[in-house]
Amino acid sequence: MEYFRQQLFPGVALTSLRTEKFKTGVLSLSLLRPLSRRDAALSALTPHVLCQGTASDPDISALSRRCEEMYGARLEPSVRKLGEIQGVGFTVDFVDDAFLPGRPEQLTAAARLLGDVLLRPAGGGGGFADGFVEAERGRLAHAIAATKNNKATYATQRLLECMCHDEAYGVNMLGDEVSALAIEPDALWAHYREMLASSRVELLYVGPQPAARVAGALADALSDLPRRESFAEVGTEAVSRAAGELRRFEETMQVAQGKMAIGARTGVTAADADYPAALLAVEIYGGFPASKLFVNVRERLQLCYYASAKMEGFKGLMLVSTGIDREAGEEAQQEIFRQWAHVQNGEISAEEMSAARLSLRSRLRVLTDGPHSLENYYLGQAAAGLSMGLEKLADKIGTITVEQVARAARRATWDSVYFLGPGGNGPCR
Questions:
Q1: Which one of 137, 166, 273, 384 is most buried, by most CB atoms within 10 A?
Q2: Residue 370 predicted with pLDDT over 70
Q3: DSSP string, 165-215
Q4: What is the pLDDT of residue 123?
Q5: Which residues have CB under 8 Å from 408's CB, separation 6+?
Q6: Better pLDDT: 422 or 293
Q7: Are 317 and 267 in contact (CB under 8 A)?
């Protein structure tokens, strides 16, 4: 795979990943904004409204016909949380020219589609088409409310909202229901125009076309993009916290099974030299079926229905997720902490080390098997100002020692515990 990165316009960067592995190409455009409670819902709603139609394809039916004429290309709005950065925009995937009769200019057509959706919305130059905002804000509010349907995911989200309440990372990337339902067309139009002018823009391409051709197609398609001399500052602050008393939060809901989510500040981000070792530490701890949490807390002691851990590399957090009965909560929590202490002390067998390394490296390499997973990974790298390739990261993990794992693990401190238990709806306290 050939990696190429360049600036197209002020504040507009292209990352091109040339590979012959896929018969499709993927293009994405993301406007990067600081994640904030005030603007999260406005920014999240914008790409959904823009995907309802353009000046030349004034409704969703016309836009769908345009995609069908591109041999079934797919256009999707996207909203992503990249640390404390909100990335909103679009992704289009399309069959590459080489696999179609007559070799049509699919890449050029896909770039023009992105440009039209972003820069030439239906409704003319003074606002969005009638009804688009009202319909989509209702769908956004419904999507926000629907996060409660998966209780394990909801518990982790609520942990982050409570644990990072005074930090941008605690903001839901979709905003909140009240803010979503309150969005008016004029306010959204003004926000959209501000986003165009002041957002940092990241463009990603994955496919077999050379970088120069990709850059030329996108430069033509986005030539009308308004740009200012300065752009909104984006970044993520990795907050450290000294070891001390855990913060505890509890909420009740109509659930059959309690959910406990625990957060730690690792002190390690994706930009840190200890990052590969920290990833491996979390894998050994709770990242796969032979991890310490699964083998000990779930299987041997049977203190929970499931137990896993994952690393949030942009913010430098470790998140533990479990399903438990309330009466087992304290014992389960102590055993969860005890297993992490084993990792911190380097109490890791050769078998655990080998299995975790194999699991993590395999999972990283699986990301190279699909154009969308590649696009998502490298967008995160670009947003964070990094350029670590998946292959290089997998190779680094292959050389990590037990001592390095323990050292990285010792940098972490436990921060907060959130418990979602059965009962009537109750506040988080």
A1: 137
A2: yes
A3: TTSGGGS-TT--HHHHHT--HHHHHHHHHHHHHH-EEEEEEEESS-HHHHH
A4: 87
A5: 266, 268, 274, 277, 278, 280, 281
A6: 293
A7: no
Amino acid identity at 82 = L
Cα–Cα distance between 238 and 94 in angstroms, integer?
A: 37
pTM, to two decimals: 0.94
Spatial separation of the C-alpha atoms in residues 396 and 241, rounded to whole Å: 28
Answer whether 286's CB lies under 8 Å from 258's CB. no
Per-residue pLDDT at 30 exceeds 90: yes
DSSP states along 230-294: S------------S-PPEEEEEEES-SSEEEEEEEE-S--TTSTTHHHHHHHHHHHHTSTTSHII
In this predicted model, what pLDDT tens digit does every residue of 171-212 receive, in sequence order? 999 999 999 999 999 999 999 999 999 999 999 999 999 999
Inform me whether the pLDDT recorded for 241 exceeds 90: no
DSSP state for residue 10 in the 8-state scheme: T
- CB 144, CB 175: distance < 8 Å: yes
**What is the CB-side half-sphere exposure of residue 427 using CA atoms within 13 A?**
1
Q: Is pLDDT of 425 > 60?
A: no
Helix, strand, coil % over all residues of the chain, rounded to 5: 45, 20, 35
**Element at 117 (helix H, strand E):** helix 106-119
Q: At what angle do helices 211-221 and 106-119 cross, to 10 degrees?
A: 30
Q: Residue 229 has what DSSP assignment?
A: S
Contact 133, 188 (CB under 8 A): yes
